[in-house]
Amino acid sequence: QKEVEQNSGPLSVPEGAIASLNCTYSDRVSQSFFWYRQYSGKSPELIMSIYSNGDKEDGRFTAQLNKASQYVSLLIRDSQPSDSATYLCAGPPNRSARQLTFGSGTQLTVLP
Amino acid sequence: EPEVTQTPSHQVTQMGQEVILRCVPISNHLYFYWYRQILGQKVEFLVSFYNNEISEKSEIFDDQFSVERPDGSNFTLKIRSTKLEDSAMYFCASRVSGASSQPQHFGDGTRLSIL
Questions:
Q1: CB A98 to CB B44 under 8 A?
Q2: B43 vs A92: CB contact, 8 Å cut-off?
Q3: Can you list the residues of chain A whose pLDDT is less than 70?
Q4: Can you list the alpha helix ranges (DSSP code H) found in B1-115?
């Protein structure tokens, strides 16, 4: 299994809907995860971090971590056209690493 | 809000030439990173830097690459004898500490085009 793997998408949702983005990880990956948003041609922008099992909410965003099943997800409620971007899941590749390994990203389009 | 700044935003260079990409990390951050992203591909780790030395590097970061923190603010990536395949976006990132829960903050990137 790849260290961090994202469902490839692309994903389209209507404005106002919930967008669900998923990421799975291998045993080796340290269990701190970050969701970044990347607009085309731009740099990754931090959305949320999560390292405890369960849900973490920040405004319209909810990150979910399930360590038993080795997946982490990002829910975007009340999706807006401005949320259209590529969402990157990232985590340290092992418990002693300081760098991040990134998934390939899920391209989200929110349709007006 | 403090941010990581990178210069130049776009660099065009002939193959075989040397390039230096510059970054100013967030001032109280201690860990610094370079990543690259080839067009249409994932973000890849190159090197991490802490306490004035390389702490980790990837297989991509071969003898062609070097990093330096020449003063208290700048963090540079040098690529010697550039190749066509070095064309990519190069991102600098920094974080306040090495704790795994601490996020990395990215600069806007330098688009490197090798002709």
A1: no
A2: no
A3: 1-2, 8, 28-29
A4: none
